[in-house]
Structure formats: C-alpha cells, structure tokens
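Protocol step 4 of 5: obtain the predicted structure for the target chain.
Materials: sequence only (see below). No template structures provided, no constraints applied. The aim of this step is simply to have a reference model before the mutagenesis design in step 5. Sequence pasted as it appears in the construct record:
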Amino acid sequence: MSVRVARAAWARDWGAGCRRGASNFPLPPPGAVNVAELLRDATAAEEGPREAAARRRRPPGQCSVLLFPGQGSQVVGMGRGLLGYPRVRELYAAARSVLGYDLLELSLHGPQEALDRTVHCQPAVFVASLAAVEKLHHLQPAVIENCVAAAGFSVGEFAALVFAGAMEFSEGPAVPPEEFLQ
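Step 4 output (structure tokens):
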C-alpha cells in the first residue's frame, strides 16, 4: 500500500478503529445525527469491496499513532541520518524553493543560533518530521499503513496535517511563524 493510500485510509477511518473503553461524554440526544456514520456511509458509497475490506476494525495491537514534535526539538545535524532514504532530499529541495534558502544546509551545519530563530526552526522541524516519516515508511511500512491517528505539538500539527493528506507539503514551510504560534 502506498503512503498516499495509507494516508487516505487513515483520513477515511479516523472514527472507525482502535477505540479504548467507553467515553465519559454523555449520550447524544435522541434523533441526533451521527457524523461518523454519515462519513462512513459516504465513503462506502464511493469505494469498492477491496477498500471496504481494508476499513475493517483492527485490534489495538495492530494500530499506530504518529506524534510529531514541535519547536524546541531542533538541533544542528538533525536530518543527517535521513538523507539516504527515498524522497528526503526532495522534501528539502521543495522546502528550499518555498523558503528561498537552503534549509538542509542550515539544519546540518547551523549555526545553532540561526536554527533556533523561529523563522528557521519551525520549517526545519516540519521538514525533518516528514523526512522521519519517509524513513519509517521505508523501514516499517506497516506502521504507516496501520496509522489511525496523527497529532503534533505546535509546528508538529502541520506535519500531522500533511501526513493525513489534509494539507499540501508546500503549504507547511510557507506558513508564517506567527500562524504556527496561534
């Protein structure tokens, strides 16, 4: 299964898998619309039997959740170990075209003071996070395929949105730092 298909499957199954225990929320009032059911019905109408089989519930041991880091996790040299994996250099090249400077060079060689500036560290953490997903996809594709949720701290929220297919990669590095902080 490709990453794009796995990400689309995650977006489709967001409410369908790997729930633990009962919710503490009160029951909805009688006659309330169940949004998760509406989304599942709409998806089922568009998919074939193969996709429907892929949506079946998975036991909790076969589910994964990705959590992306935020500002403050940046360090000179980050990303160095990811450069040998497919598409990682492409991610940095795309970031360079959006940002107008060489984010890979800054991430690998610093200086730390420049990397710590919000305008640099947020795109650096964003791109390094998605580069780490590429490594994960290469080494353990089942983790990506079985992902049922993605979340992030601060700028990590944008990486989670890109992973989920809700946002384009090129939109992430272009987000002004003040929007990352909101």
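Step 4 remarks: The chain has ten helices and two strands. Confidence is low (pLDDT under 50) at residues 1-6, 8-25.
Proceed to step 5.
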